[in-house]
Amino acid sequence: MKKFLGIVVLGLLCSGNTYAKKNYIVIPKYFFANELTKKNCSLKGVHGYGSWGKAGWDLDLSITHVSKSKNPELQGNNYDHLMKLTKYDWNKDHEQRSNSIYVNHEKHSNRLALLHGAIVTAIVDNKMKEHGPIIAEVMLAWAEAGVMLNTLTSKEISKLKDEGKVDRLCYGGAKAKGNKPCISHRPHEAQIYGATYIQQAYLMKNHFTKEQYKIIDEYIDTLYKKYIKPWAEKELTSKKHARGFIQMADGTISVLSYLAWKDEPGSVAEWIKKGISKAGKVVYQDGYIHNNSFRGVRDVWYHSQGVNNLLGLYAIAELWGYKEFPKELKQRIDRTVDILNLGLTDVKKYRERKDPSGLQNFTKDQAHANYHTHQMAISLDWLIKKYTDRDHTIVANDRMWKSKKSVYFVDRNFGFEPKCMN
């Protein structure tokens, strides 16, 4: 009998260890951080493009901020600016102001950054009791208004392409025509918006009333089903679409945002593996990145975005406890930093490597050239320094990058400031 009990106990212990090994993922309390304090995450607000104040000017990130009467150029407040998004139509805005080269998304991305800044500031200033209900009111208003939900879906766009009503590929059917529309940017932006909104909802989860939570949860489910999941499944699981590596680690972080909100750590590893698999397909042995690295006069800029998102994938996987990131892939990702440094110091030599894909989703017009690090990758130098052994100083000393990134305090590739990760 004692022997039998010993076997049972041993079996339970072994099964428990197996369970622990399968469930090693722990979602951080704040999604991108386990702790938020003024010391480790003190965001410095700044008016960006599309803000209610002058771009580049200091911005108080408190949700209750109202500008001083002594500064008439800055009359406005954060609450009203955020609430105006309830009237926003991204479909219409994109049609009127964007093309294959330029995606003018600041009207929603600026507000997402401000929302994030207001929440983090309230947390680190210990003012959630006072500011939480006001922030919740904003998020509820966006949910009730169905912000972004009238955006064309990937499925709807595929139908339009099949009917010959829009180009199948951007840049005039991948013919280097930058002034042509790129309708695929619409659901892409919707999934970035959805992921970022969900991250903020996760930070606010304990500050919604039951009624607010129900409405916001339904809104989040709709954003996920219409935009996030279809985009991520297409980008992360289809060999046909294994092209480049862009925002939200190509949708990986978007799905993780949803899994955090739903408290489903058991599904996290599966999606991180999909992100890793996609990265493995697009990062070449020498450190160039499929598509990103070969984008005409904006090649170095797009390459830096790829580096940023690849390191973001690695960083979030490490933070969440994922322990199976392939060493060989990490070595290739490190080489992407070498290629970025080459592009920033000797673009002629950088371009000796020819694009093996033959894609032409780029512009050759020097008027649209970007020979600098992506301005929304606001902490790429820090990511390089923390997660690789490569030289981060070339990016850190990129003067054009430093100038252009000065109007951002959140990396919209991820939805948060990477330096707050802990």
What labels describe this entry?
mainly alpha; disordered N terminus
Task: Describe what you observe in this structure.
- This protein has 422 residues and is an all-alpha fold.
- It has helices at residues 2-22, 78-83, 90-97, 106-124, 128-145, 154-162, 170-174, 185-203, 210-237, 247-250, 252-261, 268-282, 299-319, 327-345, 347-350, 380-387, 393-396, 399-404.
- The protein folds into 2 domains: 44-241, no CATH class; 268-422, no CATH class.
- The radius of gyration is 22 Å and the shape is globular.
Structural class category = mainly alpha
Low confidence ranges:
1-22
Number of beta strands: 0
- Tell me the quaternary state: single chain
| Tally of distinct domains | 2
Secondary-structure element pattern, one letter each: HHHHHHHHHHHHHHHHHH
Radius of gyration: 22 Å
What level of helicity do the residues show? 40-55%
Number of helices: 18
Strand count, sense and barrel status of the largest sheet are: none
Architecture blueprint of SSEs:
Elements (H helix, E strand, L loop, with lengths): L1 H21 L55 H6 L6 H8 L8 H19 L3 H18 L8 H9 L7 H5 L10 H19 L6 H28 L9 H4 L1 H10 L6 H15 L16 H21 L7 H19 L1 H4 L29 H8 L5 H4 L2 H6 L18
Brief summary:
The chain has 422 residues and is mainly alpha-helical. The chain has helices at 2-22, 78-83, 90-97, 106-124, 128-145, 154-162, 170-174, 185-203, 210-237, 247-250, 252-261, 268-282, 299-319, 327-345, 347-350, 380-387, 393-396, 399-404. The longest helix has 28 residues, at 210-237.
